[in-house]
Specification:
142 residues; eight-stranded antiparallel barrel; globular
Amino acid sequence: MKSEDLIGTWRLQSFAFTDEAGAVLHPLGEQLTGFVLISAEGYLALNFMAGERSRFADDDLFGGNAAERARATAEVVSFAGPYEYDGAVVSVTVEYSVYPNWIGRIQVREVELSGDTLILRTEGAKMFGGTLRRGEARLIRA
């Protein structure tokens, strides 16, 4: 598979994390939305969110109290940056992320492409929600 095969817009279908015992965590719920955008210029942007997000009490983009802002952040996974693809994994040098610890680091995802279905998996188990889990996002070409 070539890098060109990944270019485009991919709509999120599922996003889950599984621990060693097989227990599944859906951190954004089972009703969710989002995209992965992969450009010919070499950038990847991943933006996932809960399907039914909590609303702030006021319509102020930069407002909200601490609890509202914390809840809003917990309902989103988002990062982007330039990427490289070696035929098996995509490596993104993170330029922005909701999770600030990823900024400046490389996020690696194993890639499986079958027709119009793209699956991205974490490379091995990572700490998610206080437990080692393996993540998987299933997307379809938009």
